[in-house]
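Hi everyone,

Forwarding the result from last night's run.
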Amino acid sequence: MSFPSDLEIARSVTPRPIVDIAAELGIEPGELELYGPTKAKVRLEAITRLEAERPRGKYVVVTAITPTPLGEGKSTTTVGLAQGLNRIGRKASVNIRQPSLGPVFGIKGGAAGGGYSQVIPMEDFNLHLTGDVHAIGAAHNLAGAFIDNSLHHKNPLGIDPHGILWPRVLDISDRALRHVVIGLGGREDGVPRETEFVITVASEVMAVLALATDLFDLRDRLGRMVLATRTDGSPVTAEDLGVAGAMTVLLRDAIKPNLLQTLEGGPAFVHCGPFGNIAHGNNSIIADRLALVTNDIVCTEAGFGADMGAEKFFDIKCRASGLAPDAAVVVATVRALKMHGGVGKIVAGKPLDPALLEENVEAVRTGASNLAAHIATVRKYGIPAVVAINSFPTDTPAEVEAIREVALAAGARDAVVATHFTDGGAGATDLAEAVWAAAEDPSRSFRLLYPDEAPLGEKILTIVKEIYGGDGIELTPAAQKSLKLYESMGFGNLPICMAKTQYSISHDAALKGAPKGFTVPIREIRLSAGAGFVTPLCGEMRTMPGLPSKPGGENIDIDAEGNVVGLF
């Protein structure tokens, strides 16, 4: 008998009324805005009230080794861990990111977890949910329209047409929109110029929403966004264009976190977006604050490996929120470590290489240098690390033991096998015990990687050397010019949000394991003044993905009863 699909498992469960879950958290009926019986938004007044009444719970970030194109089950482990914590008597929430439609219809599929560790309703989670991403896209593109409208109406702000920094956005992977020319057709159709589209979840508006503390902070951050420069190099902000207020109005509902549930009826807060390779890849500060005052412990997810989402969680999100994490979980799989050890090749949409299904302890040990590097990254921030070995049926005891040995030698507090995919929370109780113990470790002492006052170039170099293991950076003339411009504008104190491949700790996807001795090329540097960070683009990194030759959307349809099918 074959294992049921994620969608079949999700539909086999009768969800609890979301009002019951909210009541258990202490959220009052008037603080809840229902979107049907199984999902709701929580008003920000609830956070203000509860923070004044309750202590903060434990704060755990879930990250991973460098993933394969199939992913290593980080979202699934985040959900399974929360389910496991609830099973051992710790009131726990999972705080997970809302997926982009780009990957859903592209290569990855859904992002609600998998197997018996999912957030439900699964279809809603992956397809629109409460419309937050659409609101973000509308707000972002409104600012774009205001820029071109200002150019059309005699350019009263003196915008340099070659100094426009604001792209358009779309939440579908579409490589044909990476470089476009707009304004063609004549005087009434706008001013012709080159521009680009990026995927919506990489929008600065998404980052602003994730890092804002309340509606008025959101308004201020939107107003500070630099959309263009004048011919003298001075910034033109959304406030200058008079669009920040309207953008805030479009986001007045999107700022409220979404409350859903796990398959086992525990709370799940879903808010803000993914893409830890080009964005900061974390859910919102607001959702975490709400979860921390309604639970004993919160499991929040960061994108891709510890070199990506976790580094940004620590250096951007925690810097902005002032919240100090208590522990980190690093998810690893035998198959991925074998690949990092030089065995087999993993291609999304194709059968798994048979070599990855055969026992190969030596390859696991060799590839576990990647795991050791990610543990070292977490430890640099003074946080205890627990390794979650996401179990597959083909894993052997010797391979698992090899991972444990490497993990403990690298400084992990523990390394635990978890079977949450097949067994739900019951398969993650050992992991839950280990994580709770780590979160109570009195020796933890959270610290940031670099100070605010360090120059931007020095911050970039610190990340490359301390996190990636590289020797240095190589800036194009355009990147050097941008650094000087941003520092002259007064943005030199901002943290860094690196944009690079997720498939290597380095900038080069072909470099597996824990590479050393490389130089990271940085072709462009972008400013996100409202979000509060600067983004270097490494190598050929793209901000608008393309679809694969066989897009996942080909499998998605409705059946004779009108149900969604093919959403994995």
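The longest strand covers residues 519-528.

Cheers,
N.
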